UniProtKB/TrEMBL annotation:
Pfam families named in the record: Cytochrome_CBB3 (PF13442)
SUPFAM superfamilies assigned to the protein according to its UniProt record, in alphabetical order: Cytochrome c
Keyword annotations of the record: Heme, Iron, Metal-binding, Signal
Protein name, as recorded: Cytochrome c
KW Signal (keyword) present: yes
Organism: Aurantiacibacter xanthus
Signal sequence, start to end: 1-23
Alphabetized GO MF terms: electron transfer activity; heme binding; metal ion binding
Keyword Metal-binding: yes
UniProt domain Cytochrome c: residue ranges: 35-119
Length: 137
């Protein structure tokens, strides 16, 4: 008798969990296996996306500091290649510095191209010491 009661309770829970109007459900995200639009986007998702995609720690921290409208890096229009290089190489607040072993200068230029539409001039990548600490563009 207890197995029958357990089975009925489980079936009831499953039925109730599938009910709803859909209005309270979040919009479906793009499929995880959707192909990136460019190699630069694929690189950004691979190297930076764990923190800087929707729901990532970096996105949440930026939303707290700068507001939701500036939290997703891929949607911002105020970033410069030089600022991205400075923050990536030296870190900022809770973001650690990313070394050239983790992300080469050429890859950093590709990420910059994806985020800003402009590549990082590779000689500028070595001169990123000024302006990263605490500054926001």
């Amino acid at each position: 008798m207890t197995r029958l009661a357990t089975a009925r309770a489980l079936a009831g829970c499953l039925f109730l969990s599938s009910c709803g109007t859909g209005a309270d459900q979040p919009e479906a995200a793009a499929p995880a296996d959707a192909a990136p639009a460019s190699p630069e986007q694929a690189l950004f998702l691979q190297k930076c996306g764990i923190c800087h995609s929707q729901g990532g720690t970096g996105t949440m921290m930026l939303a707290r500091r700068l507001g939701d409208e500036k939290s997703l890096l891929a949607e911002r229009e105020d970033l410069t290649p030089e600022y991205i290089a400075a923050v990536v190489r030296h870190g900022l607040n809770s973001m650690p510095p990313i070394t050239r072993v983790e992300l080469t200068d050429a890859q950093l230029s590709d990420v910059s191209l994806y985020l800003t539409g402009k590549p990082l001039m590779l000689d500028a990548a070595a001169q990123t010491g000024a302006g990263a600490e605490g500054e926001e563009p």
